[in-house]
Write a structure and sequence with these properties.
The protein has helices at 58-70, 89-106, 114-117, 127-135, 141-154; strands at 5-11, 16-21, 27-33, 36-42, 48-56, 84-87. It is α+β, with helices and mostly antiparallel strands.
């Protein structure tokens, strides 16, 4: 058994992924996209195996994220990735809020105040961050898949 490690972490807002190694030595690729969430096994050289360990649609991804958000204080902090660490998710959310306000100004509509509502000082944890932190606490892919299935059904 080795220590769980985070190799790559890239969060661009709606699209995000992480490459991590669990305690069992299994490598995983976690991706969060508008169509949902998918977790794949990685082989040597970073090749994604054909079968997914776990996948869900956007509503399932949101249920799991809400359940993990409730457990946020119990999860370990997100470690710094060893190869590439890029966390632009909060900035992308701020830019989307600014675009909404600017579009309202351009169309002579009332400003929705999306930028004012955005809490830049204390943003909530991003779905990829929650999932990565949760995955790093499990020993293997089977345990991770079982726990995610349980979280998805509990959060309904």
């Amino acid at each position: 058994m080795s220590e769980a490690t985070l190799t790559k972490y890239v969060d661009y807002g709606e699209r995000a992924f992480a490459d991590l190694t669990l305690e069992s030595g299994e490598r995983l690729f976690v991706s969060v996209v508008p169509k949902g969430l998918a977790i794949h096994r990685l082989h040597l050289g970073g090749i994604i195996a054909g079968r997914r360990v776990f996948a869900t649609d956007p509503s399932g991804r949101d249920r799991i994220s809400r359940a993990l958000l409730r457990e946020d204080g119990k999860l370990p902090p997100l470690p710094r990735a060893t190869k590439k660490h890029r966390d632009d998710g909060h900035m992308m959310e701020f830019m989307d809020a600014a675009i909404k306000d600017l579009q309202a100004v351009a169309e002579n509509k009332p400003i929705p105040g999306a930028v004012d509502a955005f809490d830049a000082d204390n943003p909530p944890p991003r779905p990829l961050s929650l999932l990565t932190r949760f995955a790093l606490t499990t020993r293997g892919t089977e345990e991770l898949a079982q726990k995610l299935e349980r979280l998805g059904s509990i959060a309904r």
